[in-house]
Amino acid sequence: MRYFLIIATFFLALALADKSVVKSITINQMLYPDKTFLQVKEIALDEVKKAAAKEIYGEVLISETVMLGGKVLDDVVREQAGGLVRIKGEPKFRNGENFGDIVVTVEAYATDEDLKNRANQSSSKEFDIDTADERISQIRRGFYGVWSGFIMKSGGSSSDVLIKITDSGEATIRYIASNCGGELIIQRKSPTKVRFQQKLNYGDDRCADRLFVELKKINDTQSLYMLLDEDDREVAKGTLYREE
Predict the structure, then answer these.
(1) Which end of the chain is more exposed for a tag (fewer CB within 10 A), N or C?
(2) Which pLDDT tens digit goes with each residue over 154-193?
(3) How far apart are CA 182 and CA 102, in angstroms?
(4) Strands (DSSP E) along the chain, which ranges?
(5) What are the CA-CA distances from residue 82 to residues 44, 114, 119, 219, 226 (Å)?
(6) Cα–Cα distance for residue pair 30/99, rounded to 1 Å
(7) Whose CA is closest to 214, among 241, 191, 187?
(8) Minimal CA–CA distance to 85: which of 135, 21, 179, 137?
């Protein structure tokens, strides 16, 4: 049986008067190489509004499970913020401690009516659907999952690689034979191609750090892997397979 289950649990904080909060967040514009400075500022402003909403209205947890033939295809818990957030005055932008950091600070608030309207929304939603073909199709089309295979380096040596990508976009990489690995920070993504920057957490004396990893989908279970230097010159390549 196929079914798609969404359970939303809301933890709401209500007040008898307007509720306000001063919130700051930091993002690094180096993570958005294809965006202009003004676009990055808009992204930062959107993120700080979400953080303010979470503090004002409380935590929203959404758990999604998709199953096919008794096998879990996707099991993700996400945090989201809900409710209307109003901003007093103008957002304040400044440079952060690190190169490329943008810090934005806002004074956000919600009125008593905003809080009551949010509380009146349904606190639980459950759907039992016979088919979840579109959701399953989206999952299979995406890059989420565990990818593994062998790559050939430009110097002639080979290595086995393991990449894990969550449905929320968090990714890690391991070069098993070389005993090194770390995070993959997403740079850009399309339905058939994704580019990461490699940030090693261990073994950087054995593997080069800050290189770029690209995956190009061949089909739902097979992707081309390329490791590139800062000048986009090929360092290694191979084929990775999605583990079922």
Answers:
(1) C
(2) 877 888 999 998 876 788 999 988 899 999 998 888 878 8
(3) 25
(4) 3-10, 19-28, 60-68, 71-80, 86-95, 101-110, 145-153, 158-165, 171-175, 180-189, 193-202, 212-219, 222-228, 234-242
(5) 18, 11, 10, 36, 39
(6) 9
(7) 187
(8) 21
Look at the chain and count its residues: 244
Q: What is the spatial distance between Cα 110 and Cα 117, in angstroms, rounded to a whole number?
A: 11
Considering only CA atoms, give the Rg of the chain.
22
CA distance readout (Å), 110 to 19, 21, 76, 118, 198? 5, 9, 29, 10, 40
Q: Are 192 and 216 in contact (CB under 8 A)?
A: yes
For 12-48, how does the pLDDT look when each residue is reduced to its tens digit (9 = 90+)? 333 334 678 899 989 888 888 888 888 888 888 888 8
CA–CA separation, 221 and 140 (whole Å): 8
Task: Taking the CA atoms of 91, 92, 98 and 99 in sequence, report the sign of the dihedral they define.
Answer: positive
Task: Say what the pLDDT of residue 235 is.
Answer: 92
Helices (H), the chain: 37-57, 112-120, 133-141
22: which strand partners? Answer: 107
* Residue among 154, 44, 56 at smallest CA distance from 105: 44
Q: Residue 90: exposed, middle, or buried by beta-carbon count in 10 A (0-12, 13-18, 19+)?
A: exposed
Rounded to 10 degrees, the C-alpha dihedral 92/47/53/62 comes to -170
Query: Contact at 8 Å (CB) between 217 and 193?
Result: yes
